[in-house]
Specification:
heterodimer, A: 381 residues, alpha/beta, Peroxisomal Thiolase, Chain A, domain 1, 2 domains, nine-stranded mixed sheet, two-stranded antiparallel sheet, 13 helices, globular, B: 131 residues, mainly beta, five-stranded antiparallel sheet, three-stranded antiparallel sheet, 1 helix, 8% helix, binds zinc ion, ChsH2_Znr (chain B), ChsH2_C (chain B), OB-fold protein (chain B), NA-bd_OB-fold (chain B), Acetyl-CoA acetyltransferase (chain A)
């Protein structure tokens, strides 16, 4: 038995992206939920399973049920950081396939920009790292970038080109938060924060929320928009703290990607459009390698000189990503919403013509949790 | 008698040793693997029979970053990952060398000094005679 194509995303929406003054995280979340239900043509009372996790509310699944006035059959609050929502889709598909639920809502929201101006997190430094004061989470990614540069000769310019590509995509997306021109030189001249990473290697701090609605494939065509089918999914968890990561150049995406593509019966070359959680520029290089879009150690060359920018050899983070579009702390849900828009042909100036297969990938913790989803149009079933 | 039946957990045992100026890591009596950070069971084989041993203290820098901080707030500092000879990795800092001279491959040796909050912490210095 496989989950391939058994469930579909029938509604998707964003809310409060950028700055959402005077709104709480849950209010932004519920705005996204309202948008996704409207998009799906589903009434609130039909939702019988919910999934969320929020920056500071450890019981956010319960808060969500309360705010929506629901008594769900299943409340999923699984929390692995920004990858959580791509795991929620797998659990949703299981509930739907087993007929334990009929309509599953997955959502997120954060007001971190207007509430605090920086990453809001309930996490403290790990016991065996705290005496050395690494910046959380930035220094962990800086260590991974340093190791990648040491081991494979990845260059400062190649890291910069990830940010430049994200900005070029953002310039095609009217919803992106920052759309000013950005050059490789701008990135390399930006303030050094934790070597080798500079300010422009880091994701934005914005508000924002997203939501999707999932139903069984057999019911998915009863909704106004073309269904986006979940063809495969997989997870990998290699550590929690960066000092415990077995190899800083190999993430759990190697496992999650292989599982997801195995379930979907596709290979990297088949994928039309890719959405990766780009918390920092090094993430994109690591994930492209681990997901099999290029060989280990060749991610720098892959992204260099516009490789993943508009007109490059692989469209990655077509919304502008966490680097230039939106980053309210746990970005995973946004990879799903952008994949849905691309597969529906709703992406405007940034639309990838004929996109039928998308890969969405979430990262949680400090390269700790990796979750991959393969999504496709009806033609891929 | 296994570690699980003793009074304190391995985190507390490690901290108590460090407070007395002793840096020890665990060694599995089941499979022989060294273990850090301190754990209840061996991540290599699952055995709960973990003892404490003194590492040589020698290690090699695996990765490093320099946290950039304004001089008036204390200035820059380094954060490294060190691979000990025993095969375990730990976060630390390196003293006694310019931050930008620290790079992967640098040979270092351990001592105990103050951590960021004044607590005893394992830190490293470049090995004498090593570049
Ligand atoms: Zn063992």
């Amino acid at each position: 038995m496989s989950l391939r194509g058994k469930a579909a995303i029938v509604g998707a929406a964003l809310a409060g992206c950028g700055e959402a003054h005077g709104k709480s995280a849950m209010e932004i979340t519920v705005e996204a939920v309202h948008g996704a239900l409207t998009d799906a043509g589903v009434s609130l009372g039909d939702v019988d399973a919910i999934a969320t996790c929020q920056p500071l509310d450890m019981l956010s699944g319960l808060t969500l049920a309360q705010e929506l006035g629901l008594n769900p059959k299943f409340t999923m609050n699984n929390r692995m950081g920004g990858s959580s929502f791509l795991s929620h889709t797998l659990w949703a598909a299981m509930l739907l396939e087993l007929r334990l639920a009929d309509t599953v809502l997955i959502c997120y929201g954060s007001n971190q920009r207007t509430a605090s101006g920086k990453l809001m997190t309930a996490l403290g430094l790990p016991t065996y790292e705290a005496p050395y004061k690494p910046l959380f989470p930035l220094s962990s990614y800086a260590l991974a970038a340093d190791r990648h540069m040491t081991q494979f000769g990845t260059t400062r310019e190649q890291l910069a080109d990830v940010a430049v590509a994200a900005r070029a995509w953002a310039q095609k997306n009217p919803e992106a938060f920052i759309r000013d021109p950005l050059t490789r030189e701008d990135v390399i001249a930006s303030r050094l924060v934790s070597d080798p990473l500079r300010v422009r290697d880091c994701c934005l701090v914005t508000d924002g929320g997203g939501a999707i609605v999932m139903r069984r494939a057999e019911a998915a065509k009863d909704h106004p928009k073309p269904p986006v089918y979940l063809l495969g999914g997989g997870e990998g968890t290699t550590h929690r703290d960066i000092s415990e990561m077995p190899d800083l150049t190999v993430t759990g995406a190697a496992q999650s990607g292989a599982s997801a593509m195995g379930m979907a019966g596709v290979k990297p070359a088949d994928i039309d459009v890719v959405q990766l959680y780009d918390a920092f520029t090094i993430n994109v290089i690591l994930f492209l390698e681990d997901l099999g879009f290029c060989k280990k150690g060749e991610g720098g060359a892959f992204v260099e000189n516009g490789g993943i920018a508009p007109g490059g050899h692989l469209p990655v983070n077509t919304n502008g990503g966490g680097l230039s579009c939106v980053h309210p702390g746990m970005y995973g849900i946004f990879t799903l919403v952008e994949a849905v828009r691309q597969l529906r042909g709703e992406a405007g100036d940034r639309q990838i013509a004929g996109a039928e297969l998308a890969l969405a990938h979430g990262n949680g913790g400090v390269l700790s949790s990796q979750v991959t989803n393969i999504l496709g149009t009806e033609s891929t079933l | 008698m296994t570690g699980m039946q003793k009074d304190q957990g391995p985190d507390a045992v490690f901290a108590a040793k460090l407070a007395e100026g002793v840096f020890e890591i665990q060694k599995c009596n089941g499979c022989g693997a060294h273990v850090f950070h301190p754990r209840v069971i061996c991540p290599a084989c699952g055995s709960a029979d973990l003892g404490w041993v003194a590492p040589t203290g020698r290690g090699t820098i695996y990765a490093r970053t320099i946290v950039r901080r304004k001089p008036e707030r204390g200035g820059d500092y380094n954060v490294v990952l060190v691979d000990l000879e025993e095969g375990v990795r730990m976060m630390a800092r390196v003293d006694g060398i310019a931050h930008d001279e620290i790079a992967a491959g640098l040979q270092v040796s351990a001592s105990i000094a103050e951590g960021a909050n004044g607590e005893p912490a394992v830190v490293f210095r470049p090995e004498r005679g090593a570049s």
